[in-house]
Amino acid sequence: GKTLDAGAKFQGRTLAEWVKDLSAQDEVARSQAADAVAKYGSNAKSAVPALSKILADPKDLAWFNAVDAVK
Question: How far is CA 34 from the centre of its chain?
């Protein structure tokens, strides 16, 4: 699909809101956030620190979506 601009909303939420959810306690919320952040492609540089934390734990439910987000 088309890469979203950093200022665009996805499912009614901003990139900043999705990035914040990458640090949520809930694995499902983190997984959904990583999937959403992937839609922003290289425009989601602000997500890299939070994605790196997820990637450090391969058992995290969000891990595969985080991998996709940093491709």
Answer: 3
> How far apart (Å, rounded) are the C-alpha atoms in residues 11 and 48?
21
What gap in Å lies between CA 20 and CA 64, rounded to an integer?
18
pLDDT of residue 20: 98
Over residues 6-19, the pLDDT tens digits come to: 999 999 999 999 99
Q: Is 13 left (phi over 0), alpha (psi -120 to 50) or beta?
A: beta
Chain-centre distance of CA 51, in angstroms? 7
Check if the beta carbon of residue 43 is closer than 8 Å to that of residue 4: yes
What pLDDT is recorded for position 71? Answer: 85
CA distance 15 to 70: 15
